[in-house]
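The protein record passed on for reference:
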Amino acid sequence: MRIRTLIVDDEPHAIEVIERYLQNFADIELVAKCPDAIKAFQVLQQKSIDLVFLDIKMPGLNGTDLIKSLKKPPKVIFTTAYSEYAVDGFELNAIDYLLKPIPFDRFLKSMDKVLEHFGNNKQVVLSERQSLASTEQFLYLKVDRKMMKINVNEICWIESIKDYVKVVLPDKVLVTKQKISLLQELLPEEQFCRIHRSFIVSIAKVDSYYAYAVEILGKELPIGRNYKQNVQKSFRDTGY
């Protein structure tokens, strides 16, 4: 059976992370994405939903109150950055409770519970590496008041500047108000490497590297002291 799924979160990037993760599961049908609990309530009244990924702390109606308002609530996986809400989540018989930022291996454990509950064949689950290798990946970033679609394979590097990040492509530079750590969660880890607190690079775009820097498009980017081991491992694992 296809598991009809809804994602509810007031953070667009949090929705993107879960949506990208769900692309690895053939049994999941993503029916809708909602930015708040009120819109989610409307969807739940109109459509048949089996599973909800639900943020707890949202403006207006929060996630737990949404579930309490439903006579026949769907199965729920709560997602939040606040661990203190865990008890409330499990009291509502949630399948799982995920703390943001959500690592993919932790997400897999939740999906194991989902597939077991719905009796689906676990062999339909693809690894994230297989899925990403077979499909192009995109990000949507808010630039100059509009959402711009960016092919992940075109990104050369990302640079953090206070509350903003620069996304450097071969032919242009985009600036968006975002945390570099959130973008790191959205990027496929086998293709990108955090080399410094302020820099994430595309491994495929690196022309050369040495102990203290990498070179991309003729520009040297520093390798942070605390990131050297991670850089060496990432480059070694990808056969660089």
Observations:
- The two ends are 42 Å apart (CA to CA).
- The first helix runs from residue 12 to 22.
- DSSP finds eight helices and 15 strands in the chain.
